[in-house]
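Below is a filled-in request sheet from our internal design queue. Each sheet records the structural input a requester submitted and the sequence that came back. We keep these sheets so that new team members can see what a complete request looks like end to end.

REQUESTER: design group, bay 2
PRIORITY: normal
MODE: inverse folding
CHAIN LENGTH: 404
BACKBONE (tokenized):
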């Protein structure tokens, strides 16, 4: 009932859809939210017109406009999320269950953006929309069909640049997509794009299912769904629990990074939340996490894909007589959520390291030597000092390189 009361109230709020998101209202003074971005996209799309009269911001990633929604809106009660496509037979059996009123299949992946791992859904704008509070607002879903992104205002303001673009991933060559609308999505989904974006990002096709149970208690449907799925690689999240606690206590959760070089190195990341701490699957840890010696910092524990590049960067720091500029690390592999959130950090994958933390706090310019920063960038690292909300102690892998 909690979700239904919240959704009814939320449906009465204004949902903003504007190419220039400043039309949504005051962006604030930067004290409560991260400040303006320092970077901008390399190019701005030249809009053309869709049949609905709404600009098509990105014709290369556009699909057919959805047209008006004729079906009733539904409340998303359950999210099923797998590491591989859900079969047609499985989907149909779930839809046939007593208590399942509606279900929608789509693609879901994890995308690290400025050290915050968010969930990205690639959907059919014509049908997924009925599971959102903005489902009747044609302009929003025409924008998604036109190649733009929809997200909540809080998330958008945190991760977009000055021209309202979001880079989809930590990789150096990750593409950027324009934010076309601020609107809340079902719990468990942070960003929404159309299927063409999903194809470009090499997302696992059809690996997620959102389910509405109508007047039936979602809990009564959980066991029958679990019986149909019968797969340890599938997560079932009760979204009323996510609404209350930010996650579904006891659920087996999964992060499936997009198919970039860094995401491919991370692989499928299964975890549980125990006592507020992230506990990754032991097999993943054994296969990916290593403790090794590196110059200056000594023994560090990181992802095996990152260690050669970290070692090479620090070795160059030494060779260029800059070793005194790197004196301490606050850690690399640390399975945790970002403080005050239920979003994974790149540290949970061992793909980031914090250096000289005392003098390089979040939201500051910091005192990191810029030549050291350039050396790390040369060796495939992104730097938190370049972010919307700066984190100058933070370096994360954004490109897997072959180190010889």
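RETURNED SEQUENCE:
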């Amino acid at each position: 009932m909690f979700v239904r009361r919240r959704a009814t109230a939320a449906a009465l709020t204004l949902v903003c859809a504007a190419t220039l998101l400043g039309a949504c209202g005051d962006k604030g003074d930067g004290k409560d939210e991260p400040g303006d971005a320092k970077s901008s996209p390399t190019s701005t799309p030249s809009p053309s017109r869709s049949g609905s009269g709404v600009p098509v911001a990105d014709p290369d990633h556009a699909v057919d406009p959805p047209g008006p929604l004729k079906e009733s809106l539904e409340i998303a009660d359950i999210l099923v999320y797998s590491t591989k496509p859900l079969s047609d037979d499985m989907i149909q059996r779930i839809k046939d269950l007593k208590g399942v009123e509606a279900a929608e299949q789509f693609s879901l992946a994890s995308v690290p953006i400025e050290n915050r791992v968010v969930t990205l859904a690639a959907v059919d704008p014509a049908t997924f929309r009925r599971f959102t509070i903005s489902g009747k607002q044609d302009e929003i879903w025409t924008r998604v069909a036109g190649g733009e992104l929809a997200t909540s205002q809080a998330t958008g303001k945190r991760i977009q640049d000055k021209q309202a673009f979001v880079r989809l991933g930590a990789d150096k060559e990750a593409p950027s997509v324009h934010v076309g609308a601020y609107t809340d999505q079902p719990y468990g989904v942070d960003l929404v794009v159309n299927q063409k974006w999903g194809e470009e990002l090499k997302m696992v096709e059809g690996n997620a299912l959102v389910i509405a149970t109508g007047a039936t208690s979602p809990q009564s449907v959980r066991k029958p769904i679990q019986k149909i799925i019968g797969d340890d690689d599938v997560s079932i999240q009760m979204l009323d629990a996510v609404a209350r606690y930010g996650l579904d206590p006891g659920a087996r959760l999964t992060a499936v990074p997009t198919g970039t070089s860094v995401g491919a190195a991370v692989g499928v990341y299964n975890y549980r939340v125990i006592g507020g701490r992230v506990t990754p699957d032991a097999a993943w840890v054994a296969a990916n996490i290593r403790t090794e010696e590196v110059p200056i910092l000594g023994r560090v524990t990181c992802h095996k894909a990152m260690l050669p590049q970290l070692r090479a960067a620090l070795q160059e720091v030494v060779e260029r007589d800059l070793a005194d500029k790197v004196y301490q690390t606050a850690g690399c592999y640390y399975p945790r959520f970002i403080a005050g959130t239920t979003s994974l950090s790149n540290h949970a994958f061992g793909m980031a390291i914090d250096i000289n933390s005392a003098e390089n706090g979040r939201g500051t310019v910091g005192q990191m030597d810029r030549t050291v920063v350039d050396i790390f960038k040369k060796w495939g690292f992104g730097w938190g000092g370049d972010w919307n909300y700066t984190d100058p102690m933070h370096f994360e892998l954004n490109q897997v390189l072959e180190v010889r």
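SHEET NOTES:
- The chain has two domains: 2-15+34-259, 288-397.
- The chain has a mean pLDDT of 84.
FILED BY: M.R.
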